[in-house]
């Protein structure tokens, strides 16, 4: 659905991601998790779709890497405290209360100097109609993320427009928010 190539923003910041245990939220068909495994990370990919994660395992095999996959609803998936060297959230759009809960778990789930990477659509994306959720409530704004991710130090935090070409469903000019944050 979104291609086999990793997200451009993730590729641009991959050197900031530790090579340890990495949790990929809503990893779908695995393009980002498999890419991180190719970079030497120990990846756990979580998604609600068993079909998507089957495709992720096939992609990992094609690329000669291994990833762990977990079928789970993020509203119920426990992110254990101090367990992850990095957590990656690429276009993981959740209802606000679930998103806030997941982001609180992200902060506690990162180990000291752990890194959180996020790219998501902002409400302005609805005007572009080039991908993303159908309602503003499922999008994210930087100010909200800064509140939800208290406890992390933001190294990169911007809202911007950029062209995205990712498979069938992310194509064209897009309004996104990008975050790279570190747990002190």
TrEMBL record:
Gene Ontology MF: a single term: methyltransferase activity
Biological process according to GO: methylation
Methyltransferase domain location: 22-111
Keywords of the record: Methyltransferase, Transferase
Xref: PANTHER family: PUTATIVE (AFU_ORTHOLOGUE AFUA_2G14390)-RELATED, TRANS-ACONITATE 2-METHYLTRANSFERASE-RELATED
Protein name: SAM-dependent methyltransferase
The species this protein was found in: Neosynechococcus sphagnicola sy1
